[in-house]
Amino acid sequence: MILIKHILDSLQSGLVSTFWFVLLLGILVLVHEFGHFAVAKMCGVYVETFSIGFGKRLFGIKYGDTDYRISLLPLGGYVKFAGDNPGEAPTGKVGEFNSHPRWQRVLIALAGPVANGLLALGLFLAIESFHHEVPTYTKGAAVVDYIVHNSAAEHAGLHSGDVISSYNNIQSPDWETITTQTMVNANDVTVPLTVLRAGQPLNLQLHIDARANPDKFDLTALGLIPKEQDSPVEVESLESGAPAALAGLQPGDKLVQYDGMNLYSVPALLSYLQDEHGKPMQLTVLRGQQTLQFRVTPILLPQPGGATVYRFGFTPVQPPTSIVPISFVSAVQVAWQDTVKNSTLIVEVLRGLLTRHVPLASVSGPIGIFKITSEVSQMAGWWPKFMLMAVISLNLGIFNLLPIPILDGGVIVLLLVESAMRRDVNVEVKERIYQAAFVLLMVIFAFVMFNDISRLSLFHFKP
Fold it and tell me: Which CATH number fits the domain 136-226, given the four candidates 1.20.1090.10, 2.30.42.10, 2.70.98.10, 3.40.50.1820?
């Protein structure tokens, strides 16, 4: 009976995950292709087919010049323009894609990725307008978690565990206030502050100078790491082959002490690891009711964006957050920042792949997306689903801008080359370029699928 219930639960979970995966991918493809479709219509290009999915036509309707269809393979979609046939020279008929000015064709190619970006911005705006999450620690007492060695905070005399009771003459500041005051006094200024240490007030002076690196200046640059929670850092998942997994740590483990020292945030742990330059560390771990000891040696591992730092190699459970209402204007500003930040991160990851700072094995494809969608579908509420859709929409838009023929970016580059040459590339040459690009994309797709499949638990054998 228990086995039957487990099978039914697994089947139900699989159906729910599949539903969300198909819905998410369908919406993203629909938005992307609608961008091409809408701008093509505005430019007077005839659209022969608007398809969600590839391959055999399953069903649809013919309206005007366009066949709107759902096709067999749901991993994408396409818009077929009149006269846009690789290997065929344009006939010059009105409405043919290749008969229109190149600048219009550039706009049509660009419209799909732009539509994905606008969708992501709209989703971020909805999230920030109705579900603006902020870390809980930013609104409470300003407790110091860790002080980086040889930093401005250490030179000022700050210690781990200090409670900042006054900062720049502002009484009982929270971390948000301290961050704001730091940023507005970052040009070679000394700020007075008072800390409570073992219940006793102590007056200090903190020197702030962001002139050396103004674009990346924050509290961390001062060596001042806030305490983000009262409980220890908890492991959510482990990176295969990284020190934490090799040492025997498991998801759910709570990291109580590091070389006998208590730290309560991942930034504090990372700062400590950098200060120790990769030395072996004694970890005290709470696993259920059991206290365990582990000897772990951090190694240099890439972070998202390509930066390489000493890490154990695990994903932590995120610190507590709270929902804070903000104005619409503020929501727009934060949504724009979210869009830019995630877009920049994607570009940095792509750059990291090319420079080998980010391992190729970290790349995910349809199976990886399905797995993430499955996890998000189990979360309560719409907000995690909106967030996932926004991030994947940005990924889809930026991937399509890569300068690979067949992709939108490749079409744009080819049109720009033709504009510079003031003539069309030879039809046969163009056909060979598209064939080579198709082979390249198939190789990339096969590699990504191999990565996805190799990460399935079916292929992870344990002694």
Answer: 2.30.42.10
